[in-house]
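Isopentenyl-diphosphate Delta-isomerase: structure, please.
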Amino acid sequence: MEETLILVDEDDCETGSAHKLFIHRQGLRHRAFSIFIFDEQGRLLLQQRALGKYHSQGLWTNSCCGHPRLGEQTHAAAQRRLFEEMGLTCPLKKVASLLYREQVSNDLIEHEFDHLFVGSSDTPPIANPDEALAWAWLPLSDIPRCIAAEPEKYTVWFRKIFDTYTLAGLRAWQKIALAAPSTSHLAL
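Here you go.
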């Protein structure tokens, strides 16, 4: 069964719904979220997207991303997907939103109203192999240099978030994530 996504206007007000592949082929604006998980050492959890994904396969990106289901709150969807993709649960805090439209692999277009969440965890992820090929903790200060050296190895939305909010912005998010009470644990 193909996933149905929520179509939105430029203010994130719901305007309808459609199947995921149709939305990405047509470049229709839809609701999404991106999660940034930091550990106590201040490193950011990155994931390498699984090779079976229908776009951006094998590329490195933020800790987790996805779309809320019809009738599902974005924060609840972010919590759900963090567990489904990386086997993690932790408090998440929304820090920003980003509206962007970018071409992705296979002639598909991401046109998202992307809600950005942060959290902290020292629990080693257990990545779902259908979602993530690999994962790594990377010092935040290393990421802009890595992206600049090999931009083709990173998803367009991850690069866009770094371009828009800069290293200074992500350092502020890191402080927010690490200041929150940590109740992170692996939920089985």
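Notes: The chain has one domain: 4-179.
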